[in-house]
Amino acid sequence: MENLLDKIHTPQDLKSLSMDELGLVASQLREYIINMVSSHPGHLGASLGTVELTVALHHVFNTPYDRIIWDVGHQAYGHKIITGRKDLFATNRTYGGLSGFPSMAESEYDAFGTGHSSTSISAALGMAVASVLKGEKNRQHIAVIGDGAMTGGLAFEGLNNAGVSRSNLLVVLNDNGMSIDTSRGALSRYFTRMTASRSYNHFKDSVWDMMGGDRRPYYPQRFISKISGAIKSLISPQAGNLFEALNFRYFGPIDGHDLPTLVAVLQDLRTIQGPKLLHVVTTKGKGLKEAEAAPTLYHAPGRFDVKTGKILPAGIDLSLAPKYQDVFGKTIIELARRNPRIVGITPAMPTGCSLSMMMKKMPERVFDVGIAEQHAVTFSAGLAAEGFVPFCNIYSSFAQRAYDQIIHDVALQKLPVVFCLDRAGLVGEDGATHHGAFDLAFLRPVPGIIVSAPMNERELRNLMYTAQSPENKLPFVIRYPRGRGVVPRWKTPLEIQPVGKGTCLKEGRDTAVVSIGHIGNNALKAVVSAEKTKPEKSFGLYNMIYLKPIDEDLLHEIFKRYKRVVTLEDGIVTGGLGSAVCEFAARHRYTQPIVRLALPDRFVAHGSVADLQKECGIDVEGIAKTLLDD
């Protein structure tokens, strides 16, 4: 069989292909994604579901002049491969390689960066309006929104604005019933009812055949539109109501894996002016039966066997410490059994954050609100106002999207919501859009909020226990990283972690390292290494645990004892622990030199956590070098 995919270097190479040849390209593209991701881990299921859609869009539209925005961006592997990056795809998500998401800096075909969800409609509308202002009458703007992204509030803000615009905007709703976990909420059920209607689909198919099937483009456009509207009104009156109420012309639902139909419909829609929405139904993980059967597991499965589809064991030493996520999941169940007021909230990440553990044991006390971080926070505030103890678990970089709600709805009203910020610090291969770089800096200025970070799993348990105690009356933030901790025997009796109190891990004479969070384990190793290199030196190590309120008694002790202070954190250098220590020193007129080790004042790219820590100078070797460079 001819390998047509090897001949596709730009989307222009798709233009002259026959429908059979396009089908072959799609088949080979799906096979290539499966083969590559099996040995070069990344996101899998979402991109397998958009193969035919990717081929059809690039065949019909004139990219990159026509703008396609992929939302969420992990649907876009096929897009990257057929836009000139096939030979580089093995570097996907690796240090110095391709980004795992669309990136404007990487390719002119990536119209907008989409590492977070629900942004495409707003961005595409902005581009469409810009085209009108520039007099570009024929430029097309396509927002491909799916994998749960339509559940985000920003998507509806964009729809609401676009509906009163005459801009040339096409929204393609990729409806696969999923985000990472199963999509939640009334909107998801609405799509499912619409798509599953037997009478609607049977009658729709009959009318399709009656009108000539694939010959449909030969019929007058106005006639087709009227017939389509009649079908929707007669058989499924609710089908287009949601979007047509927002002044979008609604088309669909259609099979997102039927390439000839996709091409025909997109060619028609290209000629229709104004805001319109095409509803396509796809299968997440399409083409790999194991991924179709377990889409959550195969969202980003790691390495797997291409022949069998089975995920390969990671070879993890069971004597190692558990993941912070699993400690959280097991501990919240333990706490919830003691405290009936505890509930869990997550914006579409129950498996990733391990709230799925509590969901199985206590389903009535866990709420997955969909990709809606702002709603998750204010929903939690409402629960807290009525006396419950909500543990709102949000990935650190996603919490940025709910900053106003944290300030206005929670902190201002002194509601004791417990925020568990997962994926804090460097997250590795997901890169700049997902690094939890800013939480320490953006939370520290908020009045009346407690901000903490455990150095290990035992501290995580104790902080969770402290946050839900009756004595706590304030919002309580606990930030922790993705992945494994350092304490294999982590399940010790729960104890209160005194608020605003740090600990001395090691006393010294010359330089003190003041750290917060898991990164302190690097400092512990660095101190040992530095003292081996220069035995005449002695270094102190302090684990602050709380950024706010910070332990000022401990800081006084440190500044009175040491000649130099080094602060260490895995957040941005401006605004976090280092800034707090510098402000303290200035306020109390301490004059010792202070060296701040942190993430630099720029966006850090993707790569392994080890590579990125080394780049930022917060790895063991980098910290030791700083200690010895006095």
Task: Describe the 3D structure.
By secondary structure, this protein is of the alpha/beta class. The chain is 39% helix and 14% strand. The strands form three sheets. Strands 7-6-8-9-11-10-15 form a seven-stranded mixed sheet, with helices on both faces. It has a five-stranded parallel sheet with strand order 1-2-3-5-4, sandwiched between helices.
Poorly predicted regions: 192-204, 214-237
Structural class: alpha/beta
The profile of the biggest β sheet is: 7 strands, mixed
Question: Helicity level, as a percent range?
Answer: 25-40%
The overall pLDDT, averaged over residues, is 90
Tally of alpha and pi helices: 25
Q: Kindly report how far apart the N and C termini lie.
A: 66 Å
Rg is 27 Å
Percent of residues in beta strands? Answer: 5-15%
- Globular, elongated, flat, extended or rod-shaped: what is the shape? globular
Summarize the structure.
The chain is an alpha/beta fold and 630 residues long.
Topology:
Layout: H1 19-39, H2 45-49, H3 51-60, E1 67-71, H4 77-85, H5 120-133, E2 141-146, H6 153-162, E3 169-175, H7 186-196, H8 198-210, H9 221-235, H10 241-244, E4 249-255, H11 259-269, E5 276-281, H12 289-293, H13 324-338, E6 342-346, H14 350-353, H15 355-361, E7 366-368, H16 373-385, E8 389-395, H17 396-399, H18 403-411, E9 418-422, H19 439-443, E10 450-452, H20 457-467, E11 476-479, E12 503-506, E13 511-515, H21 520-533, E14 539-543, E15 546-548, H22 552-561, E16 564-572, H23 577-587, E17 594-599, H24 609-616, H25 620-628
Parallel strand pairs: 1-2, 2-3, 3-5, 4-5, 6-7, 6-8, 8-9, 9-11, 10-11, 13-14, 13-16, 16-17
Antiparallel strand pairs: 10-15, 12-14
Helix pairs in contact: 1-3, 3-11, 5-6, 8-9, 13-15, 13-20, 16-18, 21-25
